[in-house]
Design brief:
Layout: H1 5-16, H2 20-26, H3 31-38, H4 46-55, H5 61-66, H6 84-122, H7 131-134, H8 141-147
Helix pairs in contact: 2-3
């Protein structure tokens, strides 16, 4: 059976382990255009073939056009295109994490300041406990006097 160009394009997509939609975006074409090509309903024009070879430099152009030889120019595998969406999303998550970390550090310093103020006001620090552990500022005053 003859290996047609639509089948070779489908092989490239499978090899890249990406969707037809992602492949279409990576070469600047619509998903429907790639679907029609893969299904054999249309043939790729020069612009599509050139875009494939330009984006995926390891694809053997001779194989893509004729089916002769290996799909890859060398034994290295073709890398999937970078997905800017994932990179952008990761950067946003990192920014949110840094903001939350700054907020926590700010709250810790506020708690520490409150503890210091209580120590100064009470004149003793045994009754003051960490807010982070139990969310209480100090034990009941009668208990403090009994242990003092």
């Amino acid at each position: 059976m003859e290996n047609r160009i639509n089948e070779r394009i489908a092989e490239i997509i499978i090899h890249l382990r990406i969707t037809k939609n992602a492949f279409a975006k990576s070469i600047g074409k619509s998903a429907s255009a790639i679907n029609f090509m893969v299904e054999g309903k249309s043939k790729p024009n020069f612009e599509v073939l050139d875009a494939i070879c330009e984006k995926y430099k390891e694809i053997n152009p001779s194989w893509l056009l004729t089916g002769e030889g290996n799909m890859l120019k060398s034994t290295t595998s073709v890398k999937a295109p970078e997905d800017n969406y994932l990179n952008d999303y990761l950067e946003k998550l990192e920014e949110q994490f840094k903001r939350l970390l700054n907020q926590l550090e700010s709250k810790d310093s506020q708690i520490q300041s409150l503890q210091e103020m209580l120590k100064m006001q009470l004149g003793k620090h045994r009754g003051v406990i960490k807010l982070g552990a139990s969310r209480e500022v100090m034990k009941l005053l009668p208990e403090m006097e009994e242990t003092a």
